[in-house]
């Protein structure tokens, strides 16, 4: 059997001695290296008192606000000067302009601005007519809103495992399908597009609807198509941490006129205002009980400006992530987070698979000591282990989701997603920024190489 010592000797033989030898500390997790073993490394790690790669820390910042300029300023001034911040009274509505520009940008027929990604999800569920008795499959690792939208529609959430891309594992979807399954929420998580080909095949085979949640991947592509353009309906969020932002905001996208009309009606008190009714032949559907998730003209104005920066932001992220990947590609045994489409990936993360959680945590601590902000998977939650979800708590004891035979029988908690927990626990690395400079990129590469060399391959 291969021992950690033998593995380490082979690793050193492969990489060669890069500089002064250093000694790994006793704080390294079990399996990283035997205590006191001399290893090849270019310098003593900062976590052990060596000098850090960077004296001033490096971290990413919310993307959109870094690109605010006179474009957004002028759009906002237009709204102030018009004294018409309500979209239906604005003569030349910024929200409508944004909707049209956004739909055209991604090549879709219809886009609808709403107040947030969460309310976009509620709207999409209503458009898809999801309700009591229906089951909806979603990944075990995503944001609360995906689960809450299913429950608030009265339907039953069914979790599927993720794979090493952090996205829903197509291989796990089919085993979760029952005759009650109506839809799959495919979430393109932390900048990486989900593997849509097998998912679309499964949906077609079982006659299921697909809702794409693109909140964390706006501008991402799969096989040349923008995420959000492959399913029946899609949503987006423009909250601060997304590709472009107005602080808050959301959108629904679809090519299906019936889904679009239902979405419009649900987001606006059941009604279909003239601006839409005129272009939709007066509307086909009757009104139903609904909400108010209308977007303000101020939000529409900022998003109209931000949309013009989207490709620049995505381009910067992709370029910087590629440079870091190239700078560490030769490290022996290196395993990067999987992606279904490297060219379409947004490049939000450069994450490594460290083999175990202990090694991952040590790597992150060591990288931070070198002055580089390091993180594990983020922006989402392992939902089945959250207490309110594990306990199936709802706003009313008779809520339909968990009062059916299936709802009573379903069990959440860690036992329903062991692979998800394992995968997320062993990955970690650096979150990219579109404005990282050449020097920043070099520092990230140097720091990762330094720590990785000291630790050895997993
Ligand atoms: C995957 C995903 N879906 C939906 C949402 C909800 O978006 P919002 O915060 O705009 O309501 C988020 C927010 O972070 C998200 O990450």
From TrEMBL:
<keyword id="KW-0663">Pyridoxal phosphate</keyword>
<dbReference type="InterPro" id="IPR006311">
    <property type="entry name" value="TAT_signal"/>
</dbReference>
<keyword id="KW-0032">Aminotransferase</keyword>
<dbReference type="InterPro" id="IPR015422">
    <property type="entry name" value="PyrdxlP-dep_Trfase_small"/>
</dbReference>
<keyword id="KW-0808">Transferase</keyword>
<dbReference type="GO" id="GO:0030170">
    <property type="term" value="F:pyridoxal phosphate binding"/>
</dbReference>
<dbReference type="GO" id="GO:0000271">
    <property type="term" value="P:polysaccharide biosynthetic process"/>
</dbReference>
<dbReference type="GO" id="GO:0008483">
    <property type="term" value="F:transaminase activity"/>
</dbReference>
<comment type="similarity">
    <text>Belongs to the DegT/DnrJ/EryC1 family.</text>
</comment>
<dbReference type="InterPro" id="IPR015421">
    <property type="entry name" value="PyrdxlP-dep_Trfase_major"/>
</dbReference>
<dbReference type="InterPro" id="IPR000653">
    <property type="entry name" value="DegT/StrS_aminotransferase"/>
</dbReference>
<dbReference type="Pfam" id="PF01041">
    <property type="entry name" value="DegT_DnrJ_EryC1"/>
</dbReference>
<dbReference type="InterPro" id="IPR015424">
    <property type="entry name" value="PyrdxlP-dep_Trfase"/>
</dbReference>
<protein>
    <submittedName>
        <fullName>L-glutamine:2-deoxy-scyllo-inosose aminotransferase</fullName>
        <ecNumber>2.6.1.100</ecNumber>
    </submittedName>
</protein>
């Amino acid at each position: 059997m291969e021992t950690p010592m033998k593995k380490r000797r082979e690793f050193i033989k492969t990489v060669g001695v890069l500089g002064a030898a250093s000694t790994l500390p006793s704080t390294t997790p079990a399996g990283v290296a035997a205590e006191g073993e001399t290893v090849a490394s270019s310098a003593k790690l900062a976590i052990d008192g060596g000098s850090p790669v960077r004296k001033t820390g490096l971290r990413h910042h919310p993307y959109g606000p870094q690109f605010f300029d006179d474009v957004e300023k002028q759009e906002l001034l237009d709204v102030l000067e018009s004294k018409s911040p309500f979209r239906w009274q604005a003569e030349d509505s910024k929200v409508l302009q944004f909707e049209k520009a956004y739909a055209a940008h991604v090549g879709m027929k219809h886009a609808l601005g709403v107040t947030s990604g969460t309310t976009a999800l509620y709207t999409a569920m209503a458009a898809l007519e999801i309700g009591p008795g229906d089951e909806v499959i979603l990944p075990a690792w995503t944001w609360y809103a995906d689960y809450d939208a299913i429950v608030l529609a009265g339907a039953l959430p069914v979790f599927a495992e993720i794979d090493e891309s952090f996205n829903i594992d197509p291989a796990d979807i089919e085993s979760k399908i029952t005759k009650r399954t109506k839809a799959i929420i495919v979430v393109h998580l932390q900048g990486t597009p989900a593997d849509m080909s097998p998912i679309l095949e499964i949906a077609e085979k079982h006659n299921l609807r697909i809702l794409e949640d693109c909140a964390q991947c706006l501008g991402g592509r799969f096989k040349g198509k923008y995420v959000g353009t492959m399913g029946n309906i899609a949503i987006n969020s423009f909250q601060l941490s997304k590709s472009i932002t107005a602080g808050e905001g959301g959108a629904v996208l679809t090519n299906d006129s019936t889904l679009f009309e239902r979405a419009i009606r649900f987001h606006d008190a059941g009604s279909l205002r003239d601006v839409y009714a005129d272009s939709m032949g007066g509307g086909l559907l009757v009104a139903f009980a609904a909400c108010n998730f209308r977007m303000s003209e101020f939000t529409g104005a900022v998003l109209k400006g931000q949309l013009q920066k989207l490709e620049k932001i995505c381009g910067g992220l992709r370029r910087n992530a590629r440079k870091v990947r190239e700078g560490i590609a030769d490290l022996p045994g290196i395993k990067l987070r999987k992606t279904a489409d490297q060219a379409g990936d947004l490049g939000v993360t450069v994450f490594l698979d460290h083999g175990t959680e202990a090694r991952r945590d040590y790597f992150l601590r060591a990288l931070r000591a070198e002055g580089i902000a390091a993180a594990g998977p983020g922006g989402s939650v392992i939902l089945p282990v959250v207490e309110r979800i594990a306990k199936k708590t709802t706003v009313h004891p008779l809520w339909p989701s968990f009062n059916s035979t299936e709802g009573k029988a379903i069990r959440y908690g860690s036992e329903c997603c062991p692979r998800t927990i394992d995968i997320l626990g062993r990955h970690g690395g650096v979150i990219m920024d579109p404005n990282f400079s050449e020097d920043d990129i070099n520092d990230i590469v140097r720091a990762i190489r330094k720590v990785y060399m000291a630790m050895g391959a997993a």
